[in-house]
Task: structure prediction
Amino acid sequence: MTQRPVRPPRVGLAGRLNRLLASPRFQSMAAGMPLVRRLVRRDGEALFDLVAGFCKSQSLMALVALRIPDMLLDGPLSSGRLAARCAVPPERMDVLLRANVASRLLKITRAGEFALTRQGAALAGVPGLREMILHHEVLYRDLADPVAFFRGETKTELADFWPYVFGAGGQGDPALAARYSALMEQSQRLAAEDTLAAVDLRGTCVLMDVGGGTGAFLRAACAAAPKAQAILFDLPEVVEAATPRLAEAGLDARVRIAPGSFRTDSLPQGADTISLIRVLYDHADATVADLLAKVHAALPPGGTLIVSEPMTGGARASVPGDGYFALYTMAMRTGKARTAGQITDLCRAAGFAEVRAPATRRPFVTSVVIARKCQSKLTD
Result:
């Protein structure tokens, strides 16, 4: 029996255009054409910026680890003085500084000294940013073999760094609890600020923060809603460190600490608003669905749920959500970064109504979804 020849796949207009753009001959020709060479150069520089990305991130890590932004807060310094302070050979310090000039964190003054740019000053001043950058060494090791990582073949270190996500290895270990809580405390500050700018706590009588760590979000929320009472719910090993922090803030009489695990325990009753700040993306869909059902059961009719965490961009992919947090949660091997639409669907499946996603000031810090429980069964 004669076999028919296999026809090659049909190449559409988009495919032909891609092949044209990928042609070295076309690229060389376009680079010399006055009308398009600026575009070609811009695209080429953007591609090289991606190629150099790892070097840029490692230069940033060194800059932060050596505390150079802190040294430059009071004004410019020469490369030689910075080299002496940091015990780095002068010629190598010059390379490090110029690399961060290229990243627009530093600038060179007319006197040839190095100074902070606006972004560099923000790097020195944003709470928790230094700790977050230094923590990235764990993620970098997990991504050392990126093909193995995306195939799911890497036994990632981040899975061991966040033991509470797994519920294994961390409970009962005070040292791990302290390590976990310290980084969470730092990361919650900016998230709390932007969350409270997007939600209205007026009318809230009792706010319960589930997975609230040492109370960073609750301390900010209590300042925003001075008449509200609060409940802090998290693992016993985690909330232990919250007591002195709440007392120092003068909130020990307003905040009740309720130790427990939302995996195995029901949530305390009595709150008319429940917040989940950077909680859902740590967990798989089944765990999230179970947690949201518990939240719905704990709230009275008309009660409000606040979800705040970094989210992916959906149809419009974003660098923070899709280029960073999606990989980070993948390395944790438990949860995933979701779109606001996916979180909305999970909330509706748990029984919530009137789910909305208000705009936040800095989506790269956090995005917000607000859901309300129906007033009565008659309105379900």
Notes: The longest helix spans residues 174-198. The chain has a mean pLDDT of 88. The first strand starts at residue 106 and ends at 108.
